[in-house]
């Protein structure tokens, strides 16, 4: 496993490389899979699937600057714990620039990019900026818009989002504790309980100011117009029941992007924690078509 020496004040930090030896002796090319976590997580959200994926692929993970891992320093330098720049990250555009920068300075491209939740849309925007750096996009539990409108059902009413943002601002720890259960789902199964504890640790470890700023970016953004501009081949991956991103949002994205749709036969928003073997099966099926 290698660790990237990051550029100062980069928004994508603590990058790690796993695997990558496949093909070294037979002149074949090893696919590079770049895994990007979503809100409330860090790169450890991929820990249950990276061992299997790295057996035959080069796998790269990293932490977004808003994550708990970046906030506590991780393997990064002091730039990672600098004050969070809420204005800079008030849209996905800055995250997309950071993603492009990461792929460039690690010389990774073209990559199979897996973006979980908000990172799916970040990957879409980055691929529009630099399509040459992306071989395929895998959008796991992603959404271009969370708010409902007359012509679109994103899953949340405006009043619900206002309540979420108010709770983040006024009582972050209590909100994060409860929201983790909603995000993970899966009732009271052993896997769901363990996944909830793991995700809750990351969510509650975020700096409140970063959690609020990125929460605003996520819940108030409308990136539907981005979908039709994506030229890189794409697969939308969705679970059977996701309290954060309804199935009809995945189907909407599939239609707008002319993408493939893969359904993971489980519940919740973080299947890489609750059903890792199923997620690996889906990912390997996608990789087989790339």
Automatic annotation (TrEMBL):
GO MF: hydrolase activity
Entry keyword Hydrolase: yes
InterPro entries, per the entry: AB_hydrolase_1 (IPR000073), AB_hydrolase_fold (IPR029058)
SUPFAM superfamilies: alpha/beta-Hydrolases (SSF53474)
Occurrences of domain AB hydrolase-1 (ranges): 33-281
Stated name of the protein: AB hydrolase-1 domain-containing protein
UniProt KW keywords: Hydrolase
Family assignment from sequence similarity: Belongs to the AB hydrolase superfamily.
Keyword set includes Transcription: no
